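Sharing a chain and its predicted structure for anyone who wants a worked example. Both blocks are below, sequence first, tokens second.
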Amino acid sequence: MGGVGEHGGGAGPRGAPLPTFRWEQIRSHDLPGDKWLVIERRVYDISRWTQRHPGGSRLIGHHGAEDATPLLIGELAPDEPSLDGLQNAQLVEDFRALRQAAEDMKLFEAKPAFFMFMLGHILAMEILAWLLIYLLGPGWVTSTLAALILALSQAQSWCLQHDLGHASVFQKSRWNHLAQQFVMGQLKGFSAHWWNFRHFQHHAKPNIFHKDPDVTVAPVFLLGESSVEYGKKKRRYLPYNHQHLYFLLIGPPLLTLVNFEVENLAYMLVCLRWTDLLWAASFYFRFFLSYAPFYGVPGVLFLFVAVRVLESHWFVWITQMNHIPKEIGREKHRDWASSQLAATCNVEQSFFIDWFSGHLNFQIEHHLFPTMPRHNYRKVAPLVRALCAKHGLNYEVKPFLTALADIIRSLKKSGDVWLEAYLHQ
């Protein structure tokens, strides 16, 4: 077996030949304080560097002992395959060419007017909701309409802060980060750092258990491969064969109101994110100051819960229609393009769906090019489709209602698989 005594063609910092390693050696360095990565056949020890990684130590840790850039310590042995032999070299090369073509077409350049309009119409909805109650009084009809408008505003704020979190609005990362803190904090009452901590992991390893927090939802729900595992081990914390039904009771209504609120607050306190905490406090101060004169404290709390529940429905259905019906399971060590395509699908385009979903109906393009401004997904989509056709990869596009229904179908399928394994394996 090749080891540190074998040398490749590369050279170290002082011109000495780099040692070579085999995958067996590299895989042994996948512990919390001992992480190695491989990038383009170069081996890096990032054990001390992980805490400085801009996406967080957990995100970079998800790539431990696999191809992922950086403290150079060696190379892969010449006879060792890249990505455990699963990497399609031609696909990787073609994807790089596609990205270069997108850069040449200036598809990574944002249109300031587009994002100014996004912010402007969010603020306009906030003002409209308040004016309805101020001018027409806090009756049931106006309060319901105001709650719907505020929920739409909150939904569009998710979309805008998502753009900023991916640094797809401004050229300088700092400007994106500052603007995201304002949108996420003042307009939504959440922490930008908390969101990035979760969301960057999702993009790095979509639909991979214990690496993507969006699908690591057991034991409440079972998705994909976890269904068989729980069934074989006779685990029955909940009636999983009925999870598609209780999902409707505790999933869309409560995710933002309960899970996100608690997780977000805990993150800010544990990680000492005092700036984010102040931004979030400013949202609640503004909300209560705006509506307490009409409703009093109990009424404002009721309005807040109503807005969060409506917003939560939007968030769950829109964000999960592209992922839950796709492949969910353990690490497959695929190349970037293949891993993103296996975990995502698109939804048919229309002016309304583009706006309503924040262009997340172009989930394939978003996952392949996360820093691309969303108004350019439509332009790059034909190139992505051609790449998929060339390599026999599935480029799936669904009608909107079908995509929503597939969430329930997928939950039912996973529940049935669990029951079969629970009873007969």
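Comments welcome. The CA atoms of residues 114 and 251 lie 32 Å apart.
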